[in-house]
Amino acid sequence: MIVAKFGGTAVTPRNLIYIKRIVTEAHRAVVVSAAGKEFKEDEKVTDLLLKFYDERDERLWQKVASKYRRLVEVNGISVDAEALLTDARARALRFDRQYCASLGEEISARIVSAFLCADYVEAEKVIRFDEKGELLVEQTYDAIRAAFDGDNRRVMGGFYGGCSAGGRRTFSRGGGDVTGAIVAAALCATLYENWTDVNGVCVANPAKVHNVATVSGMSYAEMRLLSLAGAEVLHSDAVAPCEQRAVPIRIGNFFNPDGASTLISHCPSQDKLLSVAEKAVEGGYVVTVLHSFPLWQITRLMSIFFKQNTRELHFFDKSCSVDPDVAQVELSDRVVRVFSRRSLLNALYLHLSCRSGSP
After folding, report:
1. Considering the domain boundaries, does residue 245 fall inside one?
2. Strands, E, within 140-283: which ranges?
3. Are 156 and 292 found together in one domain?
4. Which residues are CB-contacts of 109 (< 8 A; sequence separation ≥ 6)?
5. Could you report the per-residue pLDDT of 310-320, keeping only the tens digit for each?
6. Which residue, of 164, 197, 230, is where some domain finishes?
7. Domain boundary at 197, 224, 256, which?
8. Which of 31, 86, 150, 304 is buried deepest, with most CB atoms within 10 A?
9. Residue 79 has pLDDT above 80, yes or no
10. What is the pLDDT of residues 159-195, one digit of tens each?
């Protein structure tokens, strides 16, 4: 039995068909996000809903409504979109900001359930939070098992649940991944599939690095390290529920379901280079490298890299370069952090991947 979660890019007019192509009889539970971007300059539904709640500008709601009307029309879905949107609009400003933000996932799930001829499950009734916003794990698991009992496929929105004090609570952004993991753990699924628009866990951001390699497999602990290092392919809180129930997580590309993907389980990765991630900070960049090289080898590789890219570098517990662009390097047995005033992402990825067996 498989639980599948689809990100917002799949819930768009041209991409919705990929969900139907992937879902099989083995997929007993499907979790979906709010509609995502259709093009680079587009806005996600969740962002539009948050702005609508803050600004009370009806034009923002009409953008949300337009997205879902097109989703239904383009795919010929037998659902009364106007009734769904009218009902959601009546509730959008009646409660708090989190409630308003949750409506994107709710509308998506109601439409996708009709598209897949599946039953709809209201997340507010099964994902349960206390009055402080903490997940009520056992209560949630019991409710999920009851809601998903039987052989029928069911569809639910991610990202939100109901609060014991009334109303709704949301996870942090990207929390649909967490919902999918909770459902998979509660049902003791054989596999939790997380479908995105990239080929699994890429060693570096494919939007910034050309022809980047995909990590074939890694452990739950390694995935947590990646998330803490800034990888955005899977929400960091989505690992623990699956790890506790030993449910493997497969991260794949819904555009290419038979292509490269990453399997997360109790088995450590056989790859030497797991991640080269860079994020902008005040005054420059931080590059974080997650690896499984021996300490002596990564030290040597970094020394070679900086000899090629700087005038001098001395390695101690924290090493500094005379090059004003490279402020500091921190080394450990699994992680390297480089603080630089210029981007080093492409150069460092190419240098390390050539020595790790990656393309």
Report:
1. no
2. 154-157, 160-163, 168-170, 191-196, 217-219, 249-253, 262-265, 273-281
3. no
4. 31, 32, 120, 121, 123, 155, 156, 157
5. 544 444 455 44
6. 197
7. 197
8. 31
9. yes
10. 999 998 899 999 998 899 999 999 999 999 999 999 9
Summarize pLDDT for 3-31 with one digit per residue, the tens.
999 999 999 999 999 999 999 999 999 99
Q: Are residues 124 and 23 in the same domain?
A: yes
Q: What are the pLDDT digits (tens) for 289-311?
A: 999 888 889 888 988 888 766 54
Which among 201, 199, 210 has a CA at the least distance from the CA of 347?
210
Please check the confidence at residue 336 and state whether its pLDDT lies above 70.
Answer: yes
Question: What are the tokens at 120?
Answer: 């709809």
Q: Which residues of 75-110 are buried (b: 16+ CB within 10 A; e: fewer)?
A: bebebebeebbeebbeebeeeeebbbbbbbbbbbbb
Task: With respect to residue 230, please indicate whether it lies within any of the assigned structural domains.
Answer: no
Whether 156 and 23 map to the same domain: the answer is yes
Q: Between vectors from CA 351 to CA 346 and to CA 353, what angle results, nearest 5°?
A: 90
126-153 b/e with 16+ CB inside 10 Å = b?
bbbbeeeeebbeeebbebbeebbeeeeb
* Mean pLDDT confidence for 236-264: 95
- Within this chain, do residues 144 and 9 fall inside the same structural domain, yes or no? yes
Domain of residue 279 covers: 273-353
Give pLDDT, residue 103. 98
Q: What is the amino acid identity at position 312?
A: E
Q: Distance of CA 121 to CAs 30, 90, 166, 283, 323, Å?
A: 10, 21, 18, 47, 58
284 and 185 part of one domain: no
pLDDT of residue 251 exceeding 80: yes
Residue 219 lies in a domain: no
> In this structure, what token pair is assigned to residue 348?
């460092």
Residue 156 within any structural domain of the chain: yes
SS3 state at 265: strand
